[in-house]
Each structure stands twice: as C-alpha cells, then as structure tokens.
C-alpha cells in the first residue's frame, strides 16, 4: 500500500484531471453549472441562486447568518435558505466570491473534494489498486446520476460523506494508527469536520444516504478489525464517537433550526 501522502497527491491529480475533461467549460467560465441539458433551471434560479445572494447580503451587510429581513416580515436563513447550505465549509470559504464566479468555483471545488475523497476511500479502505480506484472514482463520483445534481446540495452531502466513511474506516484500522497520537488527533479532526459537513450540507436526504451506507459498511470493518487483532477496538470506537459528538455540537445551530 502506498503512503497516505502519495495517495492524496494521486487522488488530487485524478480529480483535477477528470474535472478538466468533463467540465472544461466551468474552468474557463464559458458556462455556468446552474443551467444545462441535465439540470432543472427553475431549481437553480428559484432556490439556490436567491439563497446564496441572501446569505451574501446578510453576511457582508449585517454580519448575520441567522435572520433575513429581505422576504416578508423576515425569515430564518438556516430554515428558509437551508438548501443554500450557509454553514457548509465550502460555502463559508467561498462566500466572498461574486455570484457569477461563486457557482463555478464552488462546484469545481466540490467535485475535487468528492473525487479525491472517493479515491482515498477506494485505495486505502477498500484496498483497490490504482486502476480499480480510478474506475471507482469515474463510475461512482462522475456517474450520470451525480452529474444531474451538479446544481443541487445533494452533492454537498455526498462529498462530505466519502470523507466521513474514509475517516471512520481508517480509524477502525488500528494496525496502522495505534502507535501515533498525532494520527489519532488528525483522524478525530477529520471525523469532526466531515460530521459537521454532513449536518450542514443543505440536503438532509444526502446525510441519511451516508448514514445508511455507514450502517451497512462499518459493522463489517469492525468485525474484520476484531478478527484480525483478536481484541475489541475500544480506542478506535471512542475516537469515532467523540468525532461525531464534536461535529454534532459544532453543527447544533443548523440542527436546532430544523427541529
């Protein structure tokens, strides 16, 4: 198995290369991901574009992410504009970009995060070789079903989800990480950020999809860990639980807004 740094470099190069092939028009700003033959333009221009404009206005004019007075008597942003994913990490990082550039950069960055995470999941957790991992990225990440959702926050949850599964399964692989505290801390941070990203992705159905995948995959990884090392991976499970709890704690504003 390659070193993590090498797999990360290969995953990033593969992700960037595939987006250049499939979405060269987004890289060159020739077109926008918010409309196209696969997308429903009404969804973009009635939901996501107004939602991001509302978030940008409130953040930069009122330093506020909770309430907007732009509609009616005012509405809570985290409820009314939940699908704009105002607390999602990529949204927070790129919200300063003008609207005509935001969507291109956001969608390309999300594809790269999604594809590189899927490559690491395939190569380091599923133990696929380079060809198998590349095919997994090509057929899963860039599937037609996902291409249809390019203008939708469903892919926010899927991009966060592959990283959540990667950090969860890597934490359970105690043979490689039991000896270094800094690796445990890194995995804990990864679990925290990916859990938070799932909570704030803007589309709860995507988070439920990843939760279902976790329920189906993790028990087998836990059984394999116990069988291989002849002991219960208590420290690994504590790390996973703590990472999930921290992610939920940080994302509590979004949770409370929806309940």
Automatic annotation (TrEMBL):
Signal peptide: none annotated. The chain crosses the membrane at residues 12-30, 101-121, 128-147, 153-172, 184-200, 206-223, 235-256. Keywords: Membrane, Transmembrane, Transmembrane helix. This is Glycosyltransferase RgtA/B/C/D-like domain-containing protein.
